[in-house]
Amino acid sequence: MEITEWTNMIQEEREQKDLFFFRNDNSPISFEASQLFEGLDYYPPDPNFRFEIELHEHEEKKILKIEDTKGNEREFIRWGEFQFRVEGKECTLQAYKGNPEEDRLFVPFRDKTSGKETYGAGRYIDLDYEEHYTTEGKWILDFNKAYNPWCAYSDFYACPFIDPENWLQVPVYAGEKNYSAKKE
Asked: Are 41 and 14 in contact (CB under 8 A)?
C-alpha cells in the first residue's frame, strides 16, 4: 500500500470514529458531551510507527492477571511478543489473547507520552488476523491506530491496566492523544 493510500485510510478511520462518538447511542461520551464534541485529537499519520513484523509466539503461554480500573482482575494469555525499534531503541511488546481460539491479538502499551500528550493509563491496539496478518506471515503493528480505552472518556467503563512489561521507554508520537473534554 502506498503512503497516500495508507494516510487516506487512517484519516477515514478517524473520521468514522468521530462520527460514532458524536452520533451513536453507544458512544462512550455522554449526550451532553457529544453536543460539544469536535473530534478526537490525534498525532498526524506517521509511517515510521507502522511495522510489518513477526510475532514471536511463546512456547509456554502463561496466564497474566491484570487489574482493571474498577478493581476487578482479568486474565489474559501471553501469546507472543513483537520486537521492533523506535528512535533507534530496541522495544518489545507482549501480545495477549482472551482465549486460545481467538484470531485477535490485544496489544496494550504505555510510552513516554502517557500522562502528558496521551492518556495516562496507556493506549491499546487490536490486531485482527483477517486485517493485520500478511501473506508473508507477519503482523501489521500500526501505532497510528493506537486508541484510548473507553474509561478515558467515562468512569462508567472498566478497562484493564497495562502490565509494566508493556511500558515502552520511548515516546510513541502516533495514534490517539488525550481526550480533552471532562469525563462523565
From this structure: no
